[in-house]
Structure formats: C-alpha cells, structure tokens
C-alpha cells in the first residue's frame, strides 16, 4: 500500500485554532508519512547557534490534516507506527526564562544554569541507534527513543500556540507519543484537523531543561475515526502495548493529576460498573500517575491503567 | 546465616525525631527480618470497619533500629531483599479529608467520593500472588507488588510524624521501596535509627485515594553503612536493578521536582565532570521524573537516571 506523504513544506501551524483549514485531506485508514522540522525551524545547526529567548513561533506542527468524516464527539485515533530521525544530529538547548530550574525559588537550592547554551547530539554513524552527548570532556551514548512533542487537533473554542498543551493535545511533550503506540484525541471540529511536529530523538520524562534532543523526523501514522465511542472524551489518551493512559495538562501538576485521575475513573466506571469511589480506590492499586513535562506554560501528567483492567476506554 | 527478627511488638514509632533511641542494635551487614503491622494498627478487619478521620497515630514504623557505627554524614544502605505479606488480606480505605480528590477545586471536575469506605482485598488462596478487589458486582485480581510505605531515619533537627515524608524518608509511599531494590538515607544522628512500616500489598504511583492495599508484612533487609561517601546526600535515593533515583518531598509537586532534579545534577556532575548546565541538559534526555505520592502532607517525586549513566551516586 502506497503512503501519502505530507511535509512541513506543505504546511505547518504555530497555533491550534478552532477554525483550522486542512492543507491536505485523508480518508480514515489511510497510511501517511508526516515529515516534521525540528522545533526551532532549523535555526540551530551548531553549538555556536544559541537561542536567546523563546521565539514567537516554535514547534512547527505539520498539517493541518483534515480527516474526512470526523465529527465533533468522535475520537481520532493516531496509530504511530514508526518515527525515523531525518537528520544527522539533534540539539538540546537551554534558554534563559525556560525550564524547571529557571524560575526557581532558590530557598535551599543552589543552582546556577548557564543559558543560553546549545549541545549538538549527533546520531551515531554505526547504525546502532544512539545519540552522542559530549560535554566537559565526557562523551556518552544515549539510545534513540523518538517522541512526538507536539500533536493535536483543532480545539473547541480557544486557540493555543504550539508551545501550549491543553485538551486538544498540542505541546504535550509525552514520551509515550512514540512508535508502537496509538494516541487518541477528542474531535472538536469537523475533519479533526490533526497536526504534529516538535519531535525529539530522546527526552526524559519531565523535559527538565525545556527541550529533549530536538530533531526533524519522518513519522509513519495511520489515522482512524471512532464515530460511536462508548464514551466521549474530553482530553487525549495514549495506548501503549501494556496500558491505557489518560493525558491532562493544567497550570499545576496537582491539577493535572486531578484531571488525569478523574478521566481514568470515568472509563473504569464504564467498563466495570464501579461507582466513582470504588473506581478511585481500585485505581489507587495499579498503574498510576506519571509525569510528562514540567516546563511548558501548562504542565502535563498521565495516569496509567494496565490493559488487564481496561479493555477499551471508548 | 541466621536472621535477627525485630517485630512491631518490640517497638514502633509514630514520629521520627532527632533523639530516637534504638529498641535494638545491629551491626552493619547483619541480616534482619522486620515485622510490620498495617498502617491502621489492625483497626480495619472487615468492610464494616471504616475510618472516619485520620487517626492521631498512623503508619506504625517498627524500630528504631540502631545501626552500630553509623555517624552523621554517612549513608545508610537498606537492601530490601523480600517483602512477604503476613496476613490473609489487605485493605483499601477512603477517609473524608484525605486523598487526591478530597480537597478538590471542583471547577470543571464533577466528582463525589463517598468517604469513609473500606474495601478488603483478600490474598488469593491459590498461591499465585494476587489480591482480589471486589465491588459493585465486579471482581478483579491484582498482582501483589509489595511496597514499604514508611521508611526512614532520625532526622537532623525537626520532628516528623509517620504521616509526613521529608529528607529523612518517612512516609515516602514510593513503589520502588520494594524487594530487589536498595534504599539509601542520609545519616543525621549517631546509629542512624532506622524504622519502617506502613506496607502495601499493591499501590499505584500516586496513591490517589490515600492508601494502597494496607497490610502487615515481614521484610528481609540487610543494612550497611557507607562511611566515606564520595558525596554526602541530603535526601533519600533508591537503587533499582536498572536505575538510580533521587527521592524528594515538598509542599508542591513542582518543588519536589526541583529538589529531585538538583539532587540528580549533583551526582551527575561528580561522576562525569559535567558543569551544572550540562548535567541539566543531559538529564533532560534519559530517565526522568516520576510521581511517588500526591496525597500526604508533603508530596513525593523521584528522578531516575539509568545505571548506564551513573555507576554510583556516593
């Protein structure tokens, strides 16, 4: 089966808005390859290229891709088959004014981060799937584990730049957005209007310095529309081989935990006939809360339930 | 080698204080079995036993165990060999005034938790290592994965009830405190004064309802004292087969993340000669932040680094 390719050269967005128009249109079930540019639009090509402040436009998301027939209330499934690194190196950067340790209450913590700084992370030549991080006379090889940083659909009413995660997805910076997993988004607008970019060759849960190893990629995906979901969803979910995970973004990690947890309770109630309290108690025994990122304007958390205890959320 | 047994009947504490006195004294390297009672001191034996409010004394921690020769500035290693469930059932409870969804800002979340409630979780008879959670006509089998909820040493200057986690350990409610892992604590007082209890037969990361499956146990541990650490530590760490993890507790998850992350930077700097900024950037590529619990008076986070990138933190 031939794949349709859509490139960042065909179109990118820097803002998810309710009224996005597709640059291309695909049918559910169609196999796509989505080409993405790195989150800094290629501006950083060596360690001499430092980013003084967050650019007005970051995290270019290739698209929007109109998914024919998707209607508000449906669920859009994005099966992420494979993410290939499309250049010879990624880059990690610090920017003054961004990152976990930037806006620090220094009480009891003695930290002095030197920003801006860029470290290039070359992809190893020998095909063993590693990045090289070299600094201060030390060289370390890091496994390549690609992540789609920004992925989402046209939101319901508000607009969100591609720096912000919210109920439509967006800058979720969630390591589970990787090959072999499937991401699910609520459809708020006709044809869903999917866009993705801001990929990393590797990223820690938390994305503490504000970036992973930012890189351009080719992403093989297959889209599907679930048009009569058992339950509608308010926020994204991600399916891994072993677990279902709700994904929620909010101003604080505590609030994101509350949202990710109550989203999970709803699907446990629907599957098992639990009342809310029993769902709450059961969900306190298996799986649990995970950190996606702690650095974006809203932070992101997920709540995992092993598939043994949830056949399907919708 | 014969094991020394210390039971909750020999002594328990409900507060970690700087001036703890040991109920027993052991030499480094001695193999111990520590018997613990459940976090509610056996008060809940059926679903008719509900807990109206958090008791003044919870999380009885067996000990204190004086570790001969441990001096302030040392590191106490607690190798957790095995945790055996010592009764026929655990119990999950909700208490009004406790748990992630209790003190909820309901803006946008419609939740109504029925507290107090108790669910007994019997240990399955057929020896397959499962708990049964039964409610609302549904029965689910959950793998037994024991956790030591409260484990710590005499603190430096302040006192902390066994409901509170802090730099001395205490109510960390961290799933990595399990068999096969080793926990490390800063030694603040002569002979360290280790105590542990509040075990769970299973617990989700987050402990959202405020408990796991609370249970009495027998814990096989071997203690060791690292008396010339490469670096002193301010807070606990835990070693799993694959990773080192810093563990930090604070009033908010964000602050706990800052502490767990800066603790990790210090050990990465010592191992690799990185400056603080490069340690920060490198740590944003591998491992990452994890949630321990979001319900205690202080919340707890850990930050993981794969062992491939850290031979030893001290």
From TrEMBL, chains A, B:
It holds the Pfam family FmdA_AmdA. InterPro entries: FmdA_AmdA. GO terms for molecular function: hydrolase activity, acting on carbon-nitrogen (but not peptide) bonds, in linear amides. This is Acetamidase/formamidase family protein. It comes from Natronoglomus mannanivorans.
């Amino acid at each position: 089966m031939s794949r349709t390719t859509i490139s960042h050269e065909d179109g990118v967005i820097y803002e998810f808005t309710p009224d996005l128009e597709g640059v291309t249109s695909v049918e559910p079930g169609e196999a796509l390859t989505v080409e993405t540019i790195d989150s800094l639009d290629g501006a950083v090509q060596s360690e001499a290229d430092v980013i003084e402040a967050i650019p007005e436009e970051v995290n270019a998301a290739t698209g929007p891709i109109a998914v024919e027939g998707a209607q508000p209330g449906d669920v859009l499934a994005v099966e992420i088959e494979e993410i290939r690194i499309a250049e010879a190196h990624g880059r990690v950067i610090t920017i003054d004014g961004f990152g976990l340790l930037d806006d620090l209450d220094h009480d009891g913590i003695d930290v002095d981060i030197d920003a801006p700084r860029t470290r290039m992370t070359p992809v190893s030549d020998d095909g063993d799937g590693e990045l090289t991080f070299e600094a201060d006379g030390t060289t370390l090889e890091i496994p390549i584990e690609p992540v789609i940083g920004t992925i989402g659909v046209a939101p319901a009413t508000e607009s969100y730049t591609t720096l912000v995660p919210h109920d439509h997805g967006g800058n979720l910076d969630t390591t589970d957005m990787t090959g072999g997993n499937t991401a699910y988004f609520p459809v708020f607008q006709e044809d869903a209007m999917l866009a993705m970019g801001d990929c990393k060759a590797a990223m820690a849960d938390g994305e503490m310095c504000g970036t992973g190893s930012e890189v351009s990629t080719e992403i093989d995906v297959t889209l599907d529309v679930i048009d009569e979901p058992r339950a509608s969803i308010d926020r994204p979910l991600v399916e891994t081989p072993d677990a279902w995970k709700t994904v929620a973004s909010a101003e604080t990690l505590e609030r994101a935990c509350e949202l990710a947890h109550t989203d999970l309770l709803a699907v446990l109630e629907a599957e098992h006939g639990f009342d809310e309290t029993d769902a709450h108690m059961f969900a306190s025994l298996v799986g649990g809360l995970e950190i996606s990122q702690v650095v974006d304007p809203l932070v992101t958390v997920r709540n995992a339930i092993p598939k043994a205890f949830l056949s399907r959320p919708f």
